[in-house]
Amino acid sequence: MFDGRDPIYVQIADQIRQDVLRGDLQPEEQVMSTTQYATTFRINPATAAKAFAQLVDDGILYKRRGVGMFVAPGAPDRLRAEGRETFFAESVDPVADHARALGIPLEDVIARLRAHAARTAGAEQDGAAS
Amino acid sequence: MSAPLGVEARGLGVRYGRKVALGGVDVAIPAGSITGLLGRNGSGKTTLASVAAAFRRPTSGAVLVGGEDPWENEDLLPRVLLVRESGDVLDVETLRTNLRFVEDCRPAFSREVAERLMDRFELDPDAKPQKLSRGQKSAFGIVLGIASRADLTILDEVHLGLDAPSRYAFYDALLEDYVEHPRTIVLSSHLIGEIERLVEHVVVLDHGRVLLAQDADALRVTGVSVTGPAREVERFVVGRTVLGRQQLGGTAQATVLAALADGEAAAARAAGLDLGPVPLQDLFVHLTADGAADAARELGRAR
Q1: How far is A69 from chain B (nearest CA, A)?
Q2: CB-CB: which of B171, B180, B221 is closest to A6?
Q3: pTM for this structure?
Q4: Residue B220 to residue A2, Cβ atoms within 8 A
Q5: Does B271 reach chain A within 8 Å, measured CB to CB?
Q6: From first to last of its 130 residues, what are the pLDDT tens digits of chain A?
Q7: Residues 6+ apart with CB under 8 A from B7
Q8: Which CATH class is domain A8-73?
């Protein structure tokens, strides 16, 4: 964990953003304190504090004085809007490049994406039914 | 009064006879930080620690702790603690008695923390230091180091004798107590990979001089490992400082000093290059290898 090329505080902030996007952290839910975060993941508390400060600046988290930090109500929508912008540039374009290099027609890639989406949706319905 | 104490060395020189241990060192250790003091054997780490803790007088220049000269400073020294691997304990007295002595001269000492850590490291209060194993001696040094809650706590290679699970217990105990009672902690260690996320600031000494002193996160991102087709790797490293290079067939890997702009990283990936992080430990090995001083100077300028 936290072995990417970005500064550790950026990686921590990214991970919390992912948790919010996936719904593992819900709006108005309290997040770990800087102290808990530092001791749980064995990282410097100042590094953790920097990550949380960035998330507060970005409107993803907000502080309740004397209580702790919480996920902002509009955080998932905000992250989805931001994610859309980078998704095509960072995720889709490299796939298209890679497919071309391997000689895979774009139609095959699209078919695969459709099949995957159908499978995932099916699994979610099964999960909801049981 | 209790507040974290920073350290500032100004033109600090220490000589042992003809041997120069520190040659005109200018460096600051920020108050309230956990700072990693790194360097190869004989680089001057222990000498710097000893001068800051007033175990030793400088030959030239000065060191200031919380803005004051620590030498024979009765008000300051109870707040400054240096724990050395050798332990500095009374060998013929029990650990319990040793703890009581330390408690008497350390105003912020927490008996509760000491007892909890004695339990955690399975140390018998009735044992005498001379009967302890190397690992147990290290553990006792750590108990004293953390429980004293000194405003400047310097831990010089204290965890060398510990096995991995005990070292992790040490890191956990240190962080837990640090967040509750902030102070300046200087951690000198050869186990850079293990402490790199604990430290906020890094000072690297080499041959009695400061190779670099900077924010740990900033240091970590100044190294990039580039892997990919040899031709593309060669193109990428042009004009950059290359710390290391490996090649296997048509694939090459280079470690370079570079803070990449977003566009540069994307261009490199488009050219089929993988960009990876360089662990602090590897950066340290490259920088302190003989003849690497130029690269270190560049790194100092780059920040």
Answers
A1: 17
A2: B221
A3: 0.83
A4: no
A5: no
A6: 566 678 888 889 999 999 999 999 999 999 998 888 898 889 999 999 999 999 999 999 999 998 999 999 999 999 998 888 888 888 888 889 889 989 999 999 999 999 999 998 877 666 555 5
A7: B27, B28, B29, B52, B63, B64, B65, B152, B184, B186
A8: mainly alpha
